[in-house]
Amino acid sequence: MASRTFPLVRGRKMRVTRLDGCGRPQYGDCNQVVTEGFVSVGLTANVTEGESITVTNANGKTCVSDTPCAEFNGYSAELTFCNVDPELFAMLSGQEQVIDANGDVVGFRMSQDKSGCDYGFALEVWAGVPGQVCSNDPNAQGAYGYILLPFMQGGVLGDFTIENAAINFSITGAGSKAGSTWGVGPYDVTMQANNQPGPLLKPIARGDHLHVQYTEVAPPDDTDGCFPVLNPEHTAITDFTATPAGLTVTVAPTPSTPSPTTEPLVVLWGDGSHTFVNTAGPITHAYSAAGTYKVTVQRGRSSVTKDVTVATP
After folding, report:
1. Per-residue pLDDT tens for 140-168?
2. Tens digits of per-residue pLDDT, 217-247?
3. Fewer CB within 10 A of the end CB, N or C, for the chain?
4. Nearest-5° angle of CA 144, CA 183, CA 12?
5. Which of 202, 229, 256 is at the close of a domain?
6. 59 falls within a domain
7. Which of 83, 82, 107, 81 is nearest to 96 (CA)?
């Protein structure tokens, strides 16, 4: 068994996934955010130093000496951002979002009435790996360091100063916890034995606070605000039909059962928008301009992409 060593430089991408208070991923709409708009991620190890015992005899010589091992209790995190992403900040702190008259998220609040024990989040960060050459695997997408903290709690908005300079917001006070139920995770982050991207090869144990590895699976694209998280156990998509009618297209997934009410899906329309589908009925979308768009339908861990052309009636 070979061992790969690799340097890590620069934070490339961050993904935050909403968890409940017990560390379980929350499936459904608006439960993850992917961004490159962060300045730094600072992790501080929390360690309890054991009490040393030393006894000397009547002659002044040490007759008993015992120094216990230090006890690791997790990490404290401070996250600094260069952009204000209200949905991300609300997810990290468990706070309320501010909604405008159009139903868009335009801000967030900090309230002492919100308990940090009622929510959680998982934190993934991708770093660059300079000088590393990808394997001969045709599906290799690059060389990255993948860092996962599977269960975090307790983030609050840190100190900030409003002055004639850029305002950087930080989330502080968050700490990693034992008891994660992340398992292998809901995302494809490693290359599998079949040379296809897939989840972690070994589930996160309940005592794991940190996972670091080399991967050739590229980080996800930035999300425009929050994005759905799909249950990886749900039925795979094998195909879909797309029926254009003017600038509108209707999509029907295969298999069509179970219905989206029990196994939701996501349609990415290729124009920067997406639809989270958890109700029965036609799945339609109206484009603003004629053209050919790459439409992707996702359910479970699967996805199917096709080119769809729409034209002005």
Report:
1. 788 999 999 999 998 888 887 777 767 77
2. 999 999 988 999 999 999 999 999 999 999 9
3. N
4. 20
5. 229
6. no
7. 107
Query: What is the number of residues in the chain?
Result: 313
Residue where a domain stops, chosen among 229, 262, 278: 229
- What is the tally of structural domains in the chain? 2
Same domain as 113, residue 43 = yes
Q: Provide the CA 129 distance to its chain's centre, in angstroms.
A: 20
Q: Retrieve residue 311's tokens.
A: 């034209």
Strand 283-286 and strand 248-254: the pairing is: antiparallel
Percent of the chain exceeding pLDDT 90 equals 57
Q: Is 265 helix (H, G, I), strand (E, B) or coil?
A: strand
In angstroms, rounded to a whole number, what is the distance separating the alpha carbons of residues 189 and 104?
31
The residue written with tokens 């219905």 in the block is 259
Pairing of strands 119-128, 190-191: unpaired
In the chain, the amino acid numbered 123 is L
Q: Which domain holds residue 244?
A: 232-313
Give the CA radius of gyration of the chain: 24
CATH code of the domain in which 236 resides: 2.60.40.10
* Cα separations in angstroms, 119 against 25, 95, 153, 209: 10, 10, 7, 17
**pTM higher than 0.90, yes or no?**
no
pLDDT band at residue 208, thresholds of 50, 70 and 90? very high
Q: Which helix (H) or strand (E) holds 93?
A: helix 86-93
Q: What is the pLDDT of residue 1?
A: 66
What whole-number distance in Å separates Cα of residue 175 and Cα of residue 312? 53
Nearest to 39 by CA among 171, 128, 143: 171
Helix (DSSP H) and strand (DSSP E) numbers for the chain: 1, 23
Structure tokens at 173: 């006070």
State pLDDT tens for residues 244-257: 999 999 999 999 88
In DSSP notation, 147-159 reads EEEEEEE--EE--
Residue owning tokens 């850029």: 166
